[in-house]
TrEMBL record, chains A, B:
Residues 1-22 form the signal peptide. Residues 149-468 form the Glycosyl hydrolase family 67 catalytic domain. GO terms for molecular function: alpha-glucuronidase activity; xylan alpha-1,2-glucuronosidase activity. Residues 28-145 form the Alpha glucuronidase N-terminal domain. This is Xylan alpha-1,2-glucuronidase. Belongs to the glycosyl hydrolase 67 family. Residues 469-694 form the Glycosyl hydrolase family 67 C-terminal domain. The active site is at residues 307, 380, 408. It comes from Xiashengella succiniciproducens. Homodimer. The keyword Signal applies.
């Protein structure tokens, strides 16, 4: 054994400098740190040799990954062999002869990305077959097997059949061409960084590609939805091509967010009217240029007529006109158009209702390579919102869910909010579109309305920080988004556990403790920021910290917290009931009626749908004021609990990440208290009611908090 | 009743503008706000008329005070009358004929400041006699009766005999001639303010005099012990005379702190050698000048050869030479010299031992009008110190206790530390000088060693802030100092209760709640700043906030926290045992042996006398580390408790002071957490031990706290 360990070390030193030295988080969940002997011994028998049937780049990537990983995990490298024997791992496509030999009757795979992992008998023993209809399936299957091994699962008798829930599983990077990242809290853009050469950045890009492939992410939008026309100039397209070539073996397509006015601004035309022939020709020429460089280019993401971005309405046209024009341009190249439904205007109508009102008329009128991208909630990535009523309602148009992985409204990279629980809450929510069981997931994954084109997107939390996400624990959201995009049936607990074991350690007490903290974390943030359906109380523009009082005479009402909380001496909350804005009418029965009645409306959305007096009695018997205050205090207690639990884990992992995370938890508690005091003291100026006597007193002074100003931009 | 109340209002409006409008704290405990009818009714019968036997200014001040007070308290003013009748209050000296009429055999009073308050029978009823050997006794007796009435005591059958414990009961004002106040946290100097004329300031000075007289303070040192020679120039002496004349009716003598080098600096002599004839003549001339202006001038306070101040040793002389020279100069004028024993040098010897070593050799060698002023502890006004070993040891020299009312080391004016408990701890401490019962109080009040000259001083917390002390609740320390100087047998609880009732309200729940908070407050500060005998961990120079880590290469070791805490991997604490500096040897048996043994040393002084390993086991079974951490946490919990208790009192007093105090308690909790985290995290770098798991985690980061810098001077 000594010798084996020695060799492992030597190997590590020779081939894996990235695994040596201080833990930085740079390796994400691909650390492949050596497994405890107890686990490794068994696995070695199953991984004596490796059979690879082809030379295709993707299959080679899979082979390279598994060899490197096993060397590191087990301390031994499977020998490359032509023939299958006991202890072989076979990487093959279903059409390869070897599969027909191993599986009488061969394999039928439903999908180009699907795969199987099977234990098959061979003479004198058994082997593990990882097969896909394409080599992509092999790549995904390989990462699946490695994940199971890192999680200590039994791999002696496997029969796994996997296929993705959504066809397109994308990251959206809000990266600007100048290298900044809108709502980025982990350093500057990894894509548009010009300080280092592409060569110097290659390793980083490969880790990015491997990490995405390991969770099944198959596409990435490389630039901000608030898009500069310049992204389409030739120099930038060259960069896009370089990335596309590097990502291709990992089954990752590149996409671009485009500015609808590009033909005018970049092309010099006097209009960008989608019905103008020259405009259409400009787009056709641009598409041809792109596809000549990148034959498998994914398509365009468009934010049109929203928050000042140009769009078809600027030329008297409609979303339909704009989206379908671009769809026509991309169709010959098999590209798709992702058209965002995030639209609202400072009108009298409830902001939460506008996307629905603006898009429903176009249901069924979009071309078949258009998909409408809808944020999970009707307002904007708040700690908690009800699901967007477009889900389930727009039945003749494919919709894609847009989640936000970066914590724009949940504490940036200073707080832990594990978002799998939030995303599951949305995906599992029942729209009642076709009666019970019409979940948001089924309304978007094709199973409910039979749409061919299915997709899901997450706004990335990735930057140039050494640990990618600015907070080691927030890597889990990148991981969780990918896993749920592949299979929305996975539980948040399982995803957390997988990620913890791969990212930190298999120590069971560490795993269970951190898993508990992660599972509570998002609700904690909701509690100390915006409990009971409150929303958008955050700082002006940068969205950091509490500012329920913000009032700027010149600002759009719907960008100010008062628009949302409506606190006054008479009570608090936004009346979206049938007596108010009637936003409830956008939901199907029985949700509509449930939300419409304060007595049946879920307490965690109560103030989203209702404006209620401070002395309103909740089911608990508490007054609204007391319940609200207790929620804010509960949030702080949760943050303190996280600190305590984390401190118990010292010594179980590397000190570098332990201390970095401990520092983050300190920040989180400080900011939780800041939020609690700010909101409770501010709302108290209206409620005129005391903080329940048994509760700790605020330590902040409202006037002092109001005077705080942060020099933060909305990009890093 | 309506009419009566109406008249009371009218009277208040006509004569008492100071009691009208917002509460500012400016009236201290002399608010005389109207008593509840339930209390007032009874008192009116006892105060129908007022008999005043003389025109002496002090007696008139007493008469004026009681009439103004009763008008305000009862809504009725006693009529002035010549003859004693039922319901008369009589203000007389024991030599007045009226006293002999009322008290067969007359009155014998032991002391010029003593007084009696007696219920005496007169025809058709009874009267209250307030008598002193001098009119000073009358003044003090008058304030005594008013205090009892404001406290709702029964005054129908009084037999009170009072006399002071100390002859000289002084405030020391560390006020600089430029108007700043060293260690002042309540605004600039009330005495050396040149922005307003003496006339404009007169009301303020009268309130100051009345407040002092009401608690028996009979002297005030008008300038900083770090004295400018200029205080003795004629212009400044004119100011001193004005104040002396104003204070005289209230039995308050003025004193000055003098710079020992004055003859050279101010007088232009080439030396200030106390044995030099010209120097002595200069002082004699200066004294003559002073006493010509102020015949009852009290004397000099001298800080010599301490912290850079000049002194006799600069000329090869001794404390004895210096003090006795000045004593000789003042003797003919009946002035006293208060010579401070606060001396220490950056030598190898323990700073806590130096005053004792430097002064003991002179015991019995000082002139009889010299008194040595000794700070309560051997180092410097820390939140907790053992008493100075000079008390009890220096038996042939009168010693005066110096307390610090201003919170130099206890949070300035941002924190509540009610100091009666600390001062009682010192005064009641048994020195064992002549066996059991040799308390510090008895060692200084003449009862133990029979010294004639007795005195006590408190460094004032008074400035030009509207509420005098920068924090409404800190007025209680000014009050408590005076009360204890008069009678050190009073309990801290009684003093607190008296003060609360006069300053705020007679509402019993308010009184008991605030009294409880005040009684716990000093120990809370000790707990979160310097528990278990730790000391001097405060910020460099300004002494604000935690800086246990401060390390300035150029600074005197004995001005740096490390000199005092001595924390290292081996443990923490200053070894003053017989194995260490042997400071314990300066105490009498059995204290010496008790302090010398960690097992018998009081836990609250353990690290003052001992350096112990982190795993040292305390009687509780806790390790030293755990016990220390728990203490720091307990301090924070106490601060939070104060906030909670205070918030329960809203509505029971004026909103102005309620909110100002609530804000201070917020500050206190924030700073308690700051202290706790700073000290625990800093000491943890040595102990390498965890914070007990059940405790809340720190919210601050040590490096961030270390980087905090405050632009604070050591004067306001």
């Amino acid at each position: 054994m000594k010798y084996g360990r020695l060799m492992a070390v030597v190997a590590a030193l020779m081939f894996l400098p990235m695994l040596v030295g201080a833990e930085t988080g740079a390796d994400l969940w691909l650390r492949y740190s050596k497994l405890p002997e107890s686990m490794a011994t068994g696995y070695r028998k199953e991984a004596k040799s490796l059979v690879v049937t082809g030379n295709d780049a993707t299959q080679q990537a899979a082979a390279g990954e598994i060899r490197m990983a096993l060397r590191s995990l087990l301390g031994t490298t499977p020998t490359l062999s032509k023939g299958v024997a006991d202890g072989s791992i076979v990487l093959a496509t279903s059409s390869d002869k070897i599969v027909k030999d191993l599986i009488p009757g061969g394999l039928e795979l439903s999908d180009d990305e699907a795969y199987v992992i099977r234990t098959v008998s061979v003479k004198k023993g058994k082997a593990i077959l990882i097969a896909g209809r394409t080599t992509t399936g092999i790549l995904y299957g390989t990462f699946d097997l490695l994940r199971r091994m890192q999680n200590g699962e039994d791999i002696s008798n496997l029969d796994i059949n996997e296929q993705p829930a959504y066809k397109l599983r994308l990251l959206n990077h809000w990266d600007n061409l100048n290298g900044t990242v809108e709502r980025g809290y982990a350093g500057h853009s990894i894509f548009w960084n010009r300080e280092e050469s592409f060569e110097q950045l290659k390793d980083q890009y490969l880790t990015y590609a491997r990490a995405n492939a390991s969770v099944g992410i198959n596409g990435t939008v490389l630039n901000n939805v608030n898009a500069s026309p310049e992204v389409l100039n030739t120099e930038n397209l060259e960069r896009v091509k370089q990335l596309a070539d590097l990502f291709r073996p990992y089954n990752i397509k590149v996409y671009l967010a485009v500015n609808f006015a590009s033909p005018a601004v970049l092309g010099g035309l006097d209009t960008a009217d989608p019905l103008d022939e020259n405009v259409q020709q400009w787009w056709r020429d641009k598409a041809a240029e792109i596809y000549k460089m990148i034959p498998d280019f994914g398509g365009f993401l468009v934010k049109a007529n929203s928050e000042g971005q140009p769009g078809p309405m600027d030329f008297g046209r409609t979303h339909q006109d704009g989206a379908n024009m671009l769809a026509g341009v991309l169709k010959p190249h098999n590209g798709v158009v992702m058209w965002r439904a995030f639209v609202y205007e400072p009108t009298n109508s409830d902001r939460a209702m506008q996307a629905y009102n603006e898009f429903m008329p176009f249901d069924g009128k979009f071309a078949d390579n258009v998909i409408v991208q809808v944020k999970n909630g009707p307002v904007d990535f708040q700690p908690r919102e009800p699901f967007s009523p477009l889900f389930g309602a727009m039945q003749k148009t494919p919709l894609m869910v847009e989640f936000q992985i970066t914590l724009e409204y949940l504490g940036h990279s200073n707080q832990l909010a594990y978002l799998a629980t939030m995303w599951k809450e949305v995906l599992d929510a029942d729209t009642w579109a076709l009666g019970a069981g019409s979940s948001v997931a089924r309304a978007t994954d094709g199973s409910l309305f039979g749409n061919e084109l299915t997709a899901i997107a997450g706004v990335a939390n990735i930057g140039r920080d050494i640990n990618w996400c600015g907070h080691d624990l927030l890597q889990s959201n990148w991981y969780a988004f990918g896993r749920l995009a592949w299979n929305h049936q996975l539980s948040s607990e399982q995803i957390a556990e997988e990620w913890i074991r791969m990212t930190f350690t298999n120590d069971d007490s560490f795993v269970s403790t951190l898993e508990e903290v992660m599972m509570r974390s998002r609700e904690a943030v909701v509690s100390y920021m915006t409990p009971m359906g409150l929303h958008h109380l955050m700082g002006w523009d940068h969205h950091y910290g509490p500012e329920p009082w913000t009032d700027l005479s010149w600002a759009r009402a719907d960008w100010l917290p008062r628009y949302y909380h409506r606190a006054g001496e008479d009570g608090i909350g936004f009346d979206r009931s049938s007596k108010g804005s009637n936003a409830v009418s956008q939901y199907f029965s029985p949700l509509r009626e449930m939300y419409d009645n304060p007595a049946t409306c879920p307490e965690n959305l109560l103030l989203w749908f209702h404006h209620l007096p401070w002395d309103y009695r909740l089911a608990s018997g508490k007054t609204l004021w007391d319940a609200l205050v207790y929620k804010y205090y509960e949030g702080v207690e949760q943050a303190r609990f996280f600190q305590k639990e984390w401190d118990k884990l010292e010594g179980k992992i590397d000190q570098e990440r332990f201390e970095a995370i401990r520092y983050k938890f300190k920040q989180q508690t400080k900011e939780a208290i800041w939020w609690r005091d700010a909101c409770v003291l501010y709302f108290q100026t209206f409620s005129k009611r005391p903080i329940p006597a048994e509760l700790e007193r605020p330590v902040h002074d409202l006037d002092e908090l109001k005077s705080l100003k942060f020099d933060l931009k909305h990009h890093n």
